[in-house]
Write a structure and sequence with these properties.
single chain; alpha/beta; GMP Synthetase, Chain A, domain 3; Rossmann fold; five-stranded parallel sheet; three-stranded mixed sheet; 10 strands; 57% helix; binds adenosine-5'-diphosphate; binds magnesium ion
C-alpha cells in the first residue's frame, strides 16, 4: 500500500486497540504522517520533548504496527513539525514492484512544465476569470472540488498556459504529487506504439504510467475526435483516476457538447465536473498581458506601442505576443528604441498582412542545419565533434527560446537526451551570446532567417 494516510490510519487503528488508551491518545493519536524516506515512515509531533518520549518508550510498538500493515516499511522515524522539512527533501515514493525510490528519480516530470507559464504571469481579466479561479482551486486541492475540470477556448487564449501553471504550482507546493501533462496527440501516439508492439510489458507500463498519477492533464482533447481506440483507452484511464479521487483536467478548442463524434459516455463524464470557458480578452486585459510579456523579455514597452499591438490582434494572445516579439527582436537587431506607433508599424510592416505560419521545431532545425551546412541526421546523432555539437546546442537554445515546448520533450526530440542536457545546452548558448560576439551574430542571423522564411 503506497498511500501514507491510509497506511497510518490502519496502523493507528491497531495501536488504539493494543495500547493503553490514555497513552494512545496522548502520544500516538496526534502524530502526523509526513512522508517515506527509503523504507521508513516519518511521523511528526509538535515538540522536541514529545519526540524524545515517544522515541524512548513507544517507538518499537509503533514500528511493529506499521510493519504489520505494510511489511515493506521497516522503520519509523519521529520528527517535529519544525524539522520535518529535512525529511521531505529526502523523501521517497513507493513504486509497484520496485519498492521505495527517491522522489527525484520518480518525478521525471520535474522540468516538464514551462517556467514562464505560472499563475503569477497569467493576467486575470473578465474573459478568463472563471477559468483562472477554477485552475487555482484545483492546483491548491487537486481531486477535491472540480473533477474533472474542463476548460475550452479558441486557440491562443491561455489553456496550455494554465495547465503548466497548475503543474508548476503543484511542483512547488506538493512535490510528492505525481502530475502528468500530455497532449491528446501524445496520448494517442503512445497508445499506438503500445498496440503495435503487442508487448504486455509495454502495455502494463502504459497503464501504470497513467493510473499512478495524482493529477492528469490532457491538452487539446478535440484531437481524439474520431480516434476510437484512444477514446476507449482514455475512458478507462479516466474511470480509474476519477474513482480514486485523482484530479483530471481537460482542455479543448470547443465545448463538450460540440465534440460531436466523441463517444457519449465521455460526454457524460465531462459533465460530472466543472466546465469553464475563456473568451477573447478585452482591450485592457490585452494591454496588461503585453506589459507582462514585455517585462519578462526585459523590454520597455510604451503605452502607445502596447495599444498599437493590442488593436492589431484581438482574438489570439499567441498571435499578439508574436507581434510584440517581432518588435522586441527588430529593436535589438537594429539597436533602436521603438516607442511610437509609427516605429512599431515600420517594424511590423513585413509581418502584419501576411500572417505566416507559426515557426515550429523542424523549421528551427532546418534553418540551423542550413546555416552550419550539416545534415539533420547529424544534429540528432550522438556525435560529439565540435562542428556538430555547437549547431546542436544552438538549435536547442532556439527551440527553448522560441517555442513553448517542455524540456523533456525537447530531450526526446534530440534522440532521448535527458532534460538536464537540454538545460545545459540552453544555458551555455545563452551565456555565450552575452560573452561572445560571434555567437550573438549566429543567433541573430538564425532568428532573422526564421522570421523571414
Ligand atoms: P491555448 O493553449 O489556449 O492555445 P496558450 O496557453 O498556448 O493558448 O497561450 C498562448 C500564449 O498566450 C502563451 O504565450 C500564453 O502565455 C499567452 N497568454 C494567454 N492568456 C494569457 C493571460 N491571461 N496572461 C498572460 N499570458 C497569456
Ligand atoms: Mg494549447
Amino acid at each position: 500500500m503506497a498511500n501514507i494516510e491510509e497506511l497510518w490510519a490502519q496502523a493507528k487503528n491497531q495501536l488504539s486497540i493494543s495500547m493503553n488508551i490514555t497513552v494512545y491518545e496522548v502520544w500516538v493519536e496526534k502524530l502526523n504522517p509526513v512522508c517515506f524516506v527509503d523504507s521508513s515512515l516519518v511521523l511528526s509531533t509538535i515538540t522536541v520533548s514529545a519526540k524524545r518520549t515517544i522515541e524512548a518508550r513507544y517507538l518499537d510498538t509503533i514500528r511493529e504496527a506499521v510493519s504489520s500493515v505494510n511489511p515493506l516499511i521497516t522503520d519509523v522515524i519521529i520528527t517535529t513539525e519544525n524539522e520535518k522539512e529535512g525529511y521531505l527533501q529526502k523523501q521517497s515514493v513507493y513504486v509497484e514492484k520496485d519498492g521505495f525510490k527517491p522522489l527525484e528519480s520518480i518525478n521525471k516530470n520535474k522540468n516538464a512544465f514551462l517556467e514562464k507559464y505560472t499563475f503569477d504571469n497569467f493576467v486575470e481579466g473578465k474573459s478568463n476569470a472563471y477559468a483562472f479561479a477554477a485552475c487555482k482551486t484545483v492546483a491548491d486541492e487537486p481531486g477535491v472540488k472540480y473533477n474533472p475540470l474542463f476548460i475550452y477556448s479558441g486557440v491562443g487564449l491561455g489553456k496550455t498556459h494554465l495547465l503548466h501553471a497548475i503543474g508548476n504550482h503543484l511542483q512547488k507546493h506538493a512535490p510528492y504529487k505525481k502530475v502528468l501533462y500530455v497532449s491528446a496527440e501524445t496520448l494517442m501516439n503512445e497508445l499506438i506504439s503500445v498496440i503495435r508492439n503487442k508487448s504486455m510489458d509495454e502495455n502494463n507500463k502504459f497503464r501504470e504510467k497513467y493510473r499512478s498519477v495524482d493529477v492528469l492533464m490532457i491538452d487539446d482533447i478535440q484531437f481524439l475526435i474520431g480516434k476510437e481506440a484512444t477514446q476507449e483507452a482514455f475512458f478507462h484511464i479516466f474511470n480509474d483516476l476519477y474513482y480514486n479521487n485523482r484530479q483530471i483536467i481537460i482542455t479543448s478548442d470547443r465545448a463538450p457538447k460540440d465534440l460531436t463524434t466523441l463517444e457519449e459516455r465521455l460526454h457524460t463524464r465531462f459533465s460530472w465536473g466543472l466546465t469553464v470557458d475563456i473568451q477573447a480578452p478585452d482591450m485592457e486585459t490585452r494591454v496588461a498581458i503585453l506589459k507582462t510579456k514585455a517585462a519578462q523579455a526585459k523590454f520597455t514597452l510604451s503605452d502607445e506601442v502596447a495599444h498599437f499591438i493590442a488593436e492589431k490582434s484581438t482574438s489570439n494572445i499567441r498571435e499578439m505576443e508574436g507581434l510584440l516579439n517581432k518588435i522586441v527582436f527588430f529593436s535589438s537587431l537594429t539597436n533602436t528604441v521603438i516607442n511610437t506607433k509609427e516605429m512599431a508599424n515600420e517594424a511590423l510592416k513585413d509581418y502584419i498582412d501576411d500572417k505566416k505560419d507559426a515557426i515550429d521545431a523542424s523549421d528551427i532545425i532546418d534553418a540551423v542545419c542550413q546555416y552550419f551546412k550539416i545534415s539533420s541526421a547529424d544534429i540528432f546523432s550522438k556525435k560529439k565533434t565540435k562542428n556538430i555539437v555547437e549547431p546542436r546546442m544552438v538549435a536547442i537554445y532556439l527551440i527553448t527560446d522560441l517555442l513553448p515546448i517542455p524540456l523533456v520533450q525537447i530531450g526526446e526530440m534530440f534522440g532521448g537526451r535527458d532534460h538536464t542536457t537540454i538545460i545545459h545546452a540552453r544555458d551555455k548558448i545563452s551565456d555565450e551570446i552575452k560573452s561572445n560576439p560571434r555567437m550573438k551574430i549566429i543567433v541573430m542571423d538564425l532568428k532573422n532567417m526564421l522570421l523571414n522564411r
